[in-house]
Amino acid sequence: MTGFFTTIGAAVRQFVGGLGRATRMFLAVLALSPALLRRFRLISDQVFFVGNLSLVIIAVSGLFVGFVLGLQGYYTLNRYGSEQALGLLVALSLVRELGPVVSALLFAGRAGTSLTAEIGLMKAGEQLTAMEMMAVNPLQRVIAPRFWAGVIAMPILAAIFSAVGILGGYLVGVQLIGVDAGAFWSQMQGGVDVRADVLNGVIKSFIFGIAVTFIALYQGFEANPTPEGVSRATTRTVVMASLAVLGLDFLLTALMFS
């Protein structure tokens, strides 16, 4: 019995300690961010790197998700004689929910693991320690640019996912099944609200970008400086980022669309 409570206490202590270190690191990154405005090239280079890593998988996945939405949406709406509303169903599903969530999960699996491995290997190679010895703050020089790059890239990738998904739904619904093209686009334009749907989807993807990118960078920064430690850190990144995205999605959906 004593061993059980000791294990629980150690787990709680480890969780609280990790939460405190993560909060301190997050606040430090925010405090160091204004200085990056003078060296925005650091962020823009990382935006290209992070976005380029995920662009192909985001676009291809968005296309196939659009295909599936077109098929499933048509067969469901056809039961009620409402197949002309297929464009609205596809657009709302992607803009509100699937675009931000699926792109964030893909971003975590592709770019997030890459960021964790990169930071972890820099730590294992003592590059971060060398920066500190040269009076260069690794949080400002390495972590902060990558953090803001992920935050900027995530809404862009989510928008690409949604746009390609709508195209996929159009190809299946209009070109393959035969839904009227005019009805497809007019229903979409008339039913999708920029403020209630598009803007809330952008806000979701922005918050997901903050969560996923910070988790990836924190896991890399706190990883044990060994190959096994870096491998475990990348695994934790995928698991924790995915859970964070799904949990935040529920909370944000309840707040935005209740």
TrEMBL record:
Q: Which InterPro entries match?
A: ABC_MlaE_roteobac, MlaE_Permease, Permease_MalE
UniProt main location, coarse: membrane
What Gene Ontology cellular component terms go with this record?
ATP-binding cassette (ABC) transporter complex
The places in or outside the cell where this protein is found are: Cell inner membrane
Q: Which residues cross the membrane?
A: 15-37, 49-74, 86-108, 147-178, 198-218, 238-257
Which is one Pfam family of this protein? MlaE
Task: Alphabetically list the UniProt keywords.
Answer: Cell inner membrane, Cell membrane, Membrane, Transmembrane, Transmembrane helix, Transport
User: GO molecular function terms here?
Assistant: phospholipid transporter activity
Annotated membrane topology: Multi-pass membrane protein
Q: What does this protein do?
A: Part of the ABC transporter complex MlaFEDB, which is involved in a phospholipid transport pathway that maintains lipid asymmetry in the outer membrane by retrograde trafficking of phospholipids from the outer membrane to the inner membrane. Probably responsible for the translocation of the substrate across the membrane.
Its quaternary structure? Answer: The complex is composed of two ATP-binding proteins (MlaF), two transmembrane proteins (MlaE), two cytoplasmic solute-binding proteins (MlaB) and six periplasmic solute-binding proteins (MlaD).
What family, per the record? Belongs to the MlaE permease family.
Q: Report what the protein is called.
A: Intermembrane phospholipid transport system permease protein MlaE
State the species of origin.
Cupriavidus pauculus
